[in-house]
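note to self — DONT lose this again. spent like an hour looking for the file last time. sequence + predicted structure for the chain T wanted, 370 res
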Amino acid sequence: MNVDPRTPVVIGVAQHTWRPASPDDLAPEPLDMWEQVVRGAAADCAATGDVLGAIESLQIVYCQAWQYDDAPLRLSERLGIDPAHRLYSGIGGTTPQVLVNDAAEAILRGDTDVAVVCGAEALDTVRRLKKAGERPAWSYRPTEKRPFPFEAPFHPAEIAHEVFQAYTTFALWDIARRAERGLTVEEHRRSLGELFAPMSEVAAANPYAWFPTARRPSELSEATAENRMVAFPYTKLLMSVMDVDMAAAVIMVSTAAADRLRVPQDRRIYLRGWCYATDPVYVAEHVPTSASPAMAAGYAEALRGAGLDIDDIDDIDHLDLYSCFPSSVRFALDALGIEPSADRPVTVTGGLPYAGGAGSDYLTHSIVAM
């Protein structure tokens, strides 16, 4: 097969989950987690060349559990490398995919040959330490407290009406879609459980899932003492869980670098199409409230880049749709013009509520699992 030497290709992936066996069973600090998965991804390449030594771009997804004075520098030191490009991201559910997209474009331009995207969260360990009245005593703490890097500031009107939290706004989209589809409250409630229950089954078969437990639709959608209502119509079990201890890494290179590093052909996954698009940030500007035009545009462009169009979606065997809340999955399915089926689940991990929504790093796990 003749492949352009600048074509970006994923050659190695790794992920790890530190599921506690007891309250005293704590995860390592994020720096240790990053190092473990990057080294694991390098080993996964099965290359006879020095993959770690060839890294030119080291990119780390923002970590909420702990701030370092210079996270990319500290990881570079751990790995014994000196990449020319080091980046520490902001927050956001799409962040890892954007980093992968940007790395692919840098490879195509010839700006870099070997790039790493990695991320980790130890929020469950932080939560359990806090519950015990303790704090993490991890390394390289910055001398000054840093502001949280919000993608966009909250709108004063949204703050006044308390509709700026994600679980509130995504619930609002679901209510809008229910009204647009003419569903009764009970029909809609049942549909939420039916959409997410198969995802829990995928998580039950995923050795890296935080909650590897299959659940019935009614367990997820019905409010009970164990499954409280958080923001109607969302119960706790229909929502992403950020308090997890998980890490993942992806290594992407040019085809020329893969040849130079002697990466076997069966370790190469070629990137063919990608796109990033956004709907308006603020609730009052999000039109329509019952759909995502950005998803429709983004999927169409990513497929076009791969030489496909939206009508070819039935030929795609595996999906992983971002699943922080049900409306995110529903908007994606609507944009793709498909319905979930037993033959093709909407996730390869189990999704953010069951595999684990590791802060801004879920999509690294999604890419690794895919």
